[in-house]
Amino acid sequence: MKNTILLLLSFLLLGTACKVNPVTGKKDFLVMGTEREKALGASYDPQVEASMGFYDDAKLQRFIDEKGQQMARISHRPNLGFQFKIVDSPVVNAFAVPGGYVYFTRGIMAHFNNEAEFAGVLGHEIGHVTARHSAKQMRNQTLSQVGLIAGAIAFPRQFGQFGEMAQQGLGLLLLKNGRDDESQSDKLGVQYSTKVGYDAVEMANFFRTIDRISAGSGQEIPTFLSTHPDPLDREEKVKQMARKRQAKAPAGQQFQVNRDSYLRMIDGLLYGKDPKQGFIENNNFYHPVLEFQFPIPNGWQTANSPQQFQMGAPDGKAVAFLMLAQEGSLQEAARAALTNNQLTLKQQENIRVNGMNAIAMRSAKPNELEVLTYVIQDGNRIYKLHGLSTPQDFSRYFNTFKQIFDNFDKLTDPSKLNKQPERVKIETVKSNTTLQNALTGFGMPRARLNELAILNGMELNDRVTAGMLIKTVR
Ligand SMILES: [Zn+2]
User: Does residue 461 have a pLDDT over 90?
Assistant: First the structure.
């Protein structure tokens, strides 16, 4: 990861030039050249995979690729070499990085209710790339911002220097675009999706879904809306732009919505968190694939990725990480934990943790960090657990770190090991009724009706008709 920062810095320092913006036709100062932009995107792509993983669904992948390439061809940068991917995250989001890499989460794919909604967001994200928003934005990042971590954990700046443990790349990827950039991308989204024949009014409707998600369950707000307090205002603007563009189309042109084909395509899509990636229940983290568990202190915030599990104290002054070691033995893993992070060893002892061989270490980066590390061997897997705090705060957190690490244990509870994910199931409505009655008829519990109404892009008292397709979860 350290290398990534250096690589990125070299891009930032060297990649400055004066370029004509493909969308505005005006000159942008200090924007990187296309080759550099592509190289930067290519360096981020593996980091996106490491932090979220790609979602494996050939049919869905083929769909976004086909639609993405079709739209890229009519965009302002048809020859950039766009790539479109689905990341394995339940959060409703889409994002783009420089060089034409566009990502949709499986969470947003589950929430679209037709192809036209998808096409609008696709156009919006392609717009960020063609108008060089992210390229401009990355140019403006300072070193301190590069070191910050993404996600909900309050992460003190000095921890960002802790080599392998920080996810600098992700932090940059999820940077917010400015209000003007968002407006411009909305406009491009309408333009591009109309041009390939979709009804961009549907894109406007999707803002309502977004508004309900962020208002309702406290789910994370999608990046592409996060700088906008009022998605409904945006909905209105997009609707107007869409109608204006459609009015200019040749008489009789039909704009596609494609609801049924979209819904059939996402039948079976994973919905919500995938327990296989690890899950939290009753203040414990369980990993059914790696078969381990450990406790989470009360009030601590957590972030889980395929690369590592992180948690942070409520006051932001301590963090703990768990990750799989790459090294072949406990001793090697312990040594690497020190050298990779330029830590000075203070104390080391061989211990047993719930029957497993382990090494416990105290180490430090003078005047910056104090660290408690456990390296634990379970069969042929070796785990590294790190607890970090500043020299001033470390003693306050030492017992908490120790309590987490000493309770690291094998997971044997079958109910945890076999926990199954939920999937979207498309059902055909049997008779004319309300959405609420239809959902109840398919056995959906009362407590989830609001969530399912949002998932369907409808209100519970909306009418549904016999033969209509709706989403349920199973
Ligand atoms: Zn955006």
Answer: yes
Read off the pLDDT of residues 71-119 as tens digits, 9 standing for 90 and up. 999 999 999 999 999 998 888 888 888 899 999 999 999 999 999 999 9
Least confident of 111-115, 252-256, 400-404: 252-256
Domain of 298, CATH number, reads: 3.40.1000.10
Q: Find the 128 Cα to ligand 1 centroid distance in Å.
A: 7
CA of 471 to the centre of ligand 1 (A): 27
User: How many angstroms separate the alpha carbon of residue 49 from the centre of ligand 1?
Assistant: 21
Same domain, 335 and 216: no
Domain count, the chain: 3
Range of the domain at 120: 2-268
Distance 131 CA to ligand 1 centre (A): 11
Give yes or no: residues 261 and 307 share one domain: no
Q: Give the pLDDT band (50/70/90) at residue 184.
A: very high
Q: How far, in Å, from the CA of 424 to the mean position of ligand 1?
A: 26
CA of residue 240 relative to chain centroid, distance: 30
Check whether residue 259 and residue 286 sit in a common domain.
no
Expressed in angstroms and rounded, the spacing between residue 182 Cα and the centre of ligand 1 is: 5
- What is the CA(390)–ligand 1 centre distance, in A? 36
Q: How far is the CA of 223 from the centre of ligand 1 (A)?
A: 7
Predicted pLDDT of residue 158:
37
